[in-house]
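Translate sequence into structure tokens.
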Amino acid sequence: MRRRTFIQGIAASAAWPVATRAQQSSMPVIGWLSGASPKGYARNVTAFLEGLKEGGFVDGQNVTIEYRWAEGQDDRLPEMVADLIRHQVVVIVGSSTTAALAAKAATTTIPIVFTTSGDPVRLGLVTSLSQPGGNLTGATQLNI
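Result follows.
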């Protein structure tokens, strides 16, 4: 249950930029970027969609979600994030460390919400845990 709550929190974080930038188009687009395959992330995506729904966002009704899966080929991530940017996404969800790093390298203006199991400061994703700075925010599981 804790994992589900965590993913719903990420979904709510992703919904915030959608709500604030929704006036720009009739159907805002969320970009989901992952270095993995959809098969391994089915539960995460389901929880993400449920979290968005709790925030009033339903895929296909008032928001569109564009998924990009690198299928373990992280060298594909830069082109995938560039494609999401061309689709004018209002937020990028980096569902892995490599995806978040690729998104960070590609844009300083589009909000990025990430999950990582590493230290986001040490990885260079954020400036500090208390004040991430820039256009990134997210969650980590640090075992100190």
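Note: Residues 2-21 form the longest helix (20 residues).
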